[in-house]
Amino acid sequence: MVREKKFSTEDIYVQTHNLLIKEGYEKFSFSLLAKSLNVSRAAIYKYYTNKDELITDYLIKQMEQMMRDFNQLTWSVDYSNQFDQLFELIFNYRDTHLISNDIPKKTLISPEKQLQKEAISKEVHGHFLNYIQQFIQTGKKNGQIKKEIPDSLIVGIIFHSINIPDRSQLSLQEKAYFIKMIIKNGIFDTPK
Questions:
Q1: Are residues 90 and 165 in the same domain?
Q2: Is residue 165 part of a domain?
Q3: What pTM does this model have?
């Protein structure tokens, strides 16, 4: 009898993440996952009945971790540094957002799992939206953000900056740095 390699749910999530980024939702399969974990497909079915249940659990775990990271941050008193912290946190979970956007609306998950996913997604987005709106209002009040720019546009730019395609072959850190610089300072050199 062949002994099955030991692996954890965390191992499954890491490989699921890697495969979803590399292959996308449509090409992701338990066969690919089993191969990347060096186990049989049957071993994965002991954990999950289908890929949608697995991906949903993975996304829920990621959103919960993002909330923990947000709540554990020691926010700087410097306004500009607060923006850097916020932007870095959003960018650290860029892949989770991209994976989530790649998943079709109709998936094979239980109604209970769907409600759980929707609830955590609503909580995370609401939490971040509230914080960003307060951050913008503080910046406008203190003269650090231009008052004429609509709040909703600023929120959209911050949230959706992670979706900007990169044709420059920058590393993720370089891309985040330059996008953050553009948001904070614009693209024009200021005259001296």
A1: yes
A2: yes
A3: 0.86
